[in-house]
Amino acid sequence: MAPKPRKKTTVSAAPTPVEVDVRICFGIKWFATEAEAMAQHKIERKMGSTYNGGWFHGMACGRDASWDKEVDGKKLFACTF
User: Fold this and answer.
1) Using one digit for the tens of pLDDT, what is the confidence trace for 55-81?
2) Is the pTM of this model over 0.70?
3) CA 71, 79, 25, 55: dihedral to nearest 10 degrees?
């Protein structure tokens, strides 16, 4: 029996964050646009990233507007990882 052909997959490039903060249980990446934050969100969900310990242990990482911030008059969009 011939082996099944492998399904081709594409690797999408992760967007480059403007700022990164790593904490004990999770990290936060801030992006210049919400579209970039959502692209990173999709990557984190596909990888199955979760908070590791603490109050929110096991919660899925991804886009989290509660971490959005403004720096020098410009809004940055957050995604946890």
Assistant:
1) 889 999 999 999 999 999 999 999 999
2) yes
3) 100
